[in-house]
């Protein structure tokens, strides 16, 4: 809105909001194509389960390694060129998966894909801090990260499998090229229209700049520096935040890797039924993100306590999710179990805007770096816990190989429930008001340095 009335704020920030939502949507739309691509690779090239599993896991290694460097780069140079470049890179690597049958080259593209996607959410955290007032920031972060992210993941198998491959009769290789082309186009649009801050955008007037700056603290987006590592890990809140995210994301990986298997094998549904049942938790998470962001901002405004509003939403969501997961295996029917899982994910994911909000509160001008540290912890949970879950399921499986009789999923859901509870308890020990965007002078009485 260039040239608007000087007495009214322009609305450029809402265009930025749309760009951020689109980036988050594409991130998960492309990431969740593996639900279709993985089985197709096994079917067409004869890859074993071990080979397919290796290809899947390679994403997480570079995704974890790329988190902190990406956050440092974004805090130092801004998200504009960074986000434009990485969406192009991950889109190219996605399309390239369908252009080779060599295992090593497929693995290389998966590594590139993970490295490119690693910095997206740290950068979007920086975007929300630079472009939105503190009083509205958390609810908008919920829409960007949880609603549009989960929505992209839920629609990925529908767009790839049902529409492009099923409806239009395209091969999976051609379909990936189309989805990759969509990402390339989006990268160009983002590069042309986005700017790092309101001060850099010619369409923002002084009223909108003042509106965006309401309630902000710290040095602001103009001050570019690197967060000292020592300051990060001397913070007790950061240490519990890291543990919280490990437990949260480590349990969340079940909704990507095992829920389909649960409905197919434990509940006896076919592929078509499993598709919509397995998508219900993601839709629950998308709705939870909206509710959690709104609740954060309302509680902060009503109570005046940012610290306990954040911690309270995180704790209550995880506690209710904990109870719901414990009830899953007690449901007599698979459809009822799916709805219980949807409720569990709703309350679990209403804490996702709390994660983003806490990153911006703790990080200040270092918000991208703080988010990258937290996301690294979550990614490590995503790497480690699937191995643990596999051991648990094998330990409670009767028979082996073709003679498998049944698997008791109860212990797995008890473990997941305990992880949710641990995540919730961590929230009670995280004080988001102890910002890292200050010059620390720790003393023996400072609880954050204990």
TrEMBL record:
Domain Major facilitator superfamily (MFS) profile: 16-434
Locations listed in the record: Membrane
Listed GO MF terms: transmembrane transporter activity
Gene Ontology CC: membrane
UniProt entry keywords in alphabetical sequence: Membrane, Transmembrane, Transmembrane helix
PROSITE patterns, A to Z: MFS
Transmembrane regions listed in the UniProt entry: 12-30, 50-70, 82-102, 176-194, 240-264, 276-296, 308-329, 335-356, 368-389, 409-430
Origin superkingdom: Bacteria
UniProt source species: Tautonia plasticadhaerens
Protein name as annotated: Putative sulfoacetate transporter SauU
Gene designation: sauU_1
Primary residence: membrane
Cited InterPro entries: MFS, MFS_dom, MFS_Na/Anion_cotransporter, MFS_trans_sf
Topological type in the membrane: Multi-pass membrane protein
